[in-house]
Amino acid sequence: MIKMKSSDRNEESKEESRRLERTVLRLGELFCGPGGLALGAKKARVAGGGNEYTIEHAWASDYNLDSCRTYARNICPDKPESVICADVREVDVKKLSPIDIFAYGFPCNDFSIVGEKKGFNGSFGPLYIYGVAILNHLKPKVFVAENVGGMTSANDGGAFGRILADLERGGNGYVLTTHLYKFEDYGIPQTRHRIIIVGIENSLGLTFKVPAPTTAKKPITAKAALEDCPIPETAPNNEKTCQSKTVIERLGHIKPGENAWNSDLPDKLRLNVKNVKLSQIYRRLHPDKPAYTITGSGGGGTHGYHWKEPRALTNRERARLQTFPDDYVFDGSKESVRKQIGMAVSPKMSELIFTSILKTLAGVAYPSIPAIWSAQPSLFNGDRRVSLSESLG
């Protein structure tokens, strides 16, 4: 066997890419945030059946001005006008250009375990219907929806069933694959658990398969993510917080992996807060484990704390744990940037999902596992699987 030089292999790969027919799928987004989903989609690329499948940005929308500026700067700097900064209720669906793929991480505030889990009774729960409106009007071939795991229990499970039913019936009808992904099992250095729903139009006769975990037995640790390749001193959004003397002293008593409640704190440093025992309060990262979930909101003690230095994480460190590249620039104040990063979808997880979608469309097999919820909407009720119609009463 003749061994090829690396340069020869690269040239052959380029030549093969030139020979392939290109299939470019247009992506539209609601609640786009700073662009985590879009960045992963742009990086996804699959060759199969004589075609090269890629995804390109068509339009996106978010109500937050800083998020829109971040998205435009990094995802579509040549088409900033394609990012619509407006309340989703004010977006004119009829003026949106055609798309092949629709994605949205609809607001999770009313489904989060940190919040009160109001579900459909909250201000944010019903906003998923604007995504359904996109499906009904533009009828994309594929959609991706993302939300927190708490969505399954909101309104005693009724909210989840209603959302799945509406998505399945949207557009020309979709085959759904719904799964709770543990991001640390897929190379993300963070224990972030999210429900991702992938829908493929019925007419295509395809069903998305959940990609198999890649790092379940050996997850990437916080230390590896932040220190194996140190963050450059010139990296943007890397300002450190000037911690108070009390916070520094308190963190000095909290060991890696511990928080303000399970550490041995002197009385003067204990928190005088009633009925609040959230585990992330002044919780320090453990260097030998993935980070706990990076959040985008919360007051004192919720910013995520370094295991070695007595300080909160910088936004660049948070972005690293979310797998944003170091040259991804976030617009806005330090607190605004923190919110954008915490609310974003991990680009690496997004790339994996969109790559698997492209493989499904191209007929390229990939390692997979069964979805927690079957292709047709269903819910768990205790240990018994309940049909959607039964769950909705």
Keywords:
single chain; two-stranded antiparallel sheet; alpha/beta; disordered C terminus; about 400 residues; eight-stranded mixed sheet; Rossmann fold
Secondary structure layout plus pairing:
Elements: H1 6-19, E1 21-30, H2 36-43, E2 45-48, E3 51-62, H3 65-74, E4 83-85, E5 101-104, H4 129-138, E6 142-148, H5 158-169, E7 174-182, E8 193-201, E9 210-211, H6 222-227, H7 245-252, H8 315-321, H9 334-343, H10 347-362, E10 368-369, E11 378-381, E12 384-387, H11 388-391
Parallel strand pairs: 1-3, 1-5, 3-4, 5-6
Antiparallel strand pairs: 2-3, 6-8, 7-8, 9-10, 11-12
Question: Could you explain the architecture of this structure?
Answer:
The protein has helices spanning 6-19, 36-43, 65-74, 129-138, 158-169, 222-227, 245-252, 315-321, 334-343, 347-362, 388-391, and strands at residues 21-30, 45-48, 51-62, 83-85, 101-104, 142-148, 174-182, 193-201, 210-211, 368-369, 378-381, 384-387. By secondary structure, the protein is an alpha/beta fold. The protein has a domain at 17-216 and 345-391: Vaccinia Virus protein VP39 (Rossmann fold, 3-Layer(aba) Sandwich), CATH 3.40.50. Strands 1, 2, 3, 4, 5, 6, 7 and 8 form an 8-stranded mixed beta sheet that branches. Helix 2 crosses helix 10 (347-362). It is globular. The protein starts with 5 loop residues before the first helix and ends with a helix.
